[in-house]
Amino acid sequence: METVWSIFHYGFFQRALLAGLSVGISCALLGVFLILRKAAMIGHGLAHVSFAGVAIGLSLGWLPLLSALFFTVITAGVLVKIRQKTGLYSDTVIALVSSFGFALGILLVSLSQRINVELFSYLFGDILTISSLEVIVSILLALSLVIIIIVYFREFLYTTFDPEAAQVAGISGDKVELLLTVLSGITVVLGMKVVGILLVVSLMVIPAASALRIARTFRQALLGAVVFSLGEIFIGLCLSFWLDIPAAAAIVLLSFGLYILIVLLTKRSAQ
Amino acid sequence: MPSVVNNLNHQELPLIEVIDLTFRYNRVEVLSDINLVVHKGDFLALIGPNGAGKTTLIKLLLGLLRPHRGKIKLFQRDLKEFKDWALIGYIPQKAIHFESFFPISVREAVALNLPQARWYDFWTKKINEREVVKALETVGMQDYIEERIGHLSGGQQQRVFIARALVSRPQILILDEPTTGVDAITQEKFYDLLAHLNQEKGLTIIIVTHEIGVVNRHVNKVACLNRSLVYHGTHAEFCQSDYFRQILDEGHHLIGHKH
Ligand SMILES: Nc1ncnc2c1ncn2[C@@H]1O[C@H](COP(=O)(O)OP(=O)(O)OP(=O)(O)O)[C@@H](O)[C@H]1O
Ligand SMILES: [Mg+2]
Q1: For chain A, what percent of residues have pLDDT higher than 90?
Q2: Whose CA is nearest to atom 4 of ligand 1?
Q3: CA geometry: angle at A106 spanning A102 and A112, to 5°?
Q4: How far apart are the first and last CA of chain B?
């Protein structure tokens, strides 16, 4: 089957694969923490904010990747501060921030004459047009995230599992929350091109949720989420090329199917 | 109140001193002029109705909240200068209310509290194996070290949390209503374990509880809180006190339900 494997020779497919897999690692690792902290929707909120960031970039003629990164990271920091100061639930703050981001994005889009197909590629993902810069940034992000989680494993896990006891042990939950949220912001921006603003939260939530069904230890959960994520993105991308369907849809539907399968299987074994 | 404090045993050094402590949430005064001393070797029950400020007092002792007025000393040092938090083991009221799907093994949960743990200890196979196993042996849970915590019973989980507190080799153990939702027999075993830690290992224990029966069997000091300190003294005197009689008369309403 020479034709089936020939896609791996194309530069655009290699870039798509590298970027997709790197973003997948970042999303999966963050997702495990976000779900357990009941803040899974943070990816969704920050994705809406990055939409505004993209719109800013497109209307000012800047590189959308950079303006989105800048705007999303700042907003992520502000979001955490608001939550810590007001003591609101994080889902409330996420709803506030995401509607603000999207409204701002819509305003900018309507004001600007130069908005075009490019904005569309951020909304629904367009993994074929991923640039080498985006590939490199995605790989660097995945690497840093793996290192951060290995080094700060105790801090991240303790504040997630029992924030009060962690604080007594001298670990600041506020700092961990800020770090996790900012990293989520960066990850979401890079995930936009892979599956689009509207679906990027699925990369964070679905593989992690699958791993949480079967893991016994926390390290298994992290590893499991990464394995699921890599497998789903790899197969999803290949399917999208072979069957000529949108990559975002292929990846998300595949992960969702696998999640349902795992739920059914673990339900039986638990009884 | 000072007259009551004077009745207490002064042979041992005070590990915790609370002096004229007042605390407010926003404008609402929750604790007023609290004076409390805990000595080495004490097994103190902190009792009082719901909303009396027990959890708030504990959080103040741990530096999780800042007093509005007054002073707290830990190990004869001002709370603001106190750094040696490994000396205090804490089991929060909410500790056992984690999601049962939280994927954390008994080993991981206990190792979290190793104060001297370095980052790579969590990734090498034999991380402080001896410390973790020893803490689990003290509470009789060493056979469950690989188990996911969510799969254990409520009573077993409580033992694991004790082990987590013990692994930092504390001198004081603070437990906030540790036995809510645990059956009577398990509860009794749990208190036997605490009594053992107090008597054999010389651990100082502060326990927030609604179980007046437990108070009667195991502790040697009682503090009754209801926004201010209603009673503070030895257990023997507590049983003679008006406050105790009042509790009995009111069918334990002030303390909560006894099973
Ligand atoms: N974060 C908060 N903000 C404002 N008020 C609070 C807060 N936490 C507690 N309170 C109030 O402070 C009072 C004391 O609460 P606390 O939790 O210390 O009581 P408690 O004695 O531990 O009660 P319980 O037996 O129900 O655990 C209550 O009236 C409560 O409403
Ligand atoms: Mg309480």
Answers
A1: 58
A2: B25
A3: 140
A4: 32
pLDDT in tens, A90-116: 778 888 888 888 899 888 888 876 666
Atom of ligand 1 nearest to the CA of B52: 21
Mean pLDDT of A249-264: 95
Question: Residues lining ligand 1, judged by CB closer than 6 Å?
Answer: B 25, 30, 48, 50-56
Which range of residues forms the domain containing residue A19?
4-261
Q: Are B24 and B30 in contact (CB under 8 A)?
A: yes
Which atom of ligand 1 is nearest to B210's Cα? 25
CB A68, CB A54: distance < 8 Å = yes
DSSP A88-126: --HHHHHHHHHHHHHHHHHHHHHH-S---HHHHHHHH--
Q: CA-CA distance, A83 to B32, in Å (whole number)?
A: 30
How near does any CA of chain A get to the CA of B189, in Å? 24
Cα–Cα dist A240/A242, whole Å: 6
Q: Is A271 domain-assigned?
A: no
Q: Does residue A133 fall inside a structural domain?
A: yes
Contact A119, A58 (CB under 8 A): yes
Closest residue of chain B to A149, computed from CA coordinates: B119
In chain A, how many domains are there?
Answer: 1
pLDDT confidence bin for B10, thresholds 50/70/90: low
CB contact under 8 A, B63 and A217: no
Indicate the CATH number of B4-250 among 3.40.50.300, 3.40.50.1820, 3.40.630.30, 3.40.228.10: 3.40.50.300
**Residues in A touching B99 (Cβ below 8 Å):** 36
Going by alpha carbons, the residue nearest to atom 30 of ligand 1 is: B51
Which helix (DSSP H) or strand (DSSP E) does residue B34 occupy? strand B28-39
The label of the residue with tokens 């804490």 reads: B90
CB A165 within 8 A of CB B168: no
pLDDT at B237 over 80: no
Rounded to 5 degrees, what angle do the CA atoms B255, B258, B259 make?
165
Q: Is A162's CB within 8 Å of B107's CB?
A: no
Q: If residue B44 lies in a helix (H) or strand (E), which one and from where to where? A: strand B43-47
- Closest atom, ligand 1, to C-alpha of B53: 18
Q: Is B122 on the interface with A (CB under 8 A)?
A: yes
> For residues B243 and B166, which has the higher predicted lDDT (pLDDT)?
B166
Q: Is residue A230 part of a domain?
A: yes
ipTM: 0.84
Chain B nearest-CA distance from A177, in A, is 17
Asked if residue A106 is part of any domain, the answer here is: yes
CATH number at residue A243: 1.10.3470.10
Of the candidates A153, A158, A157, A183, the one whose C-alpha atom is nearest the C-alpha of residue A170 is A158
Q: Report CB contact under 8 Å: A218, B92.
A: no
Helix H, strand E, coil C: the string for A191-243 is HHHHHCCCCHHHHHHHHHHHHHHHCCCHHHHHHHHHHHHHHHHHHHHHHHHHH
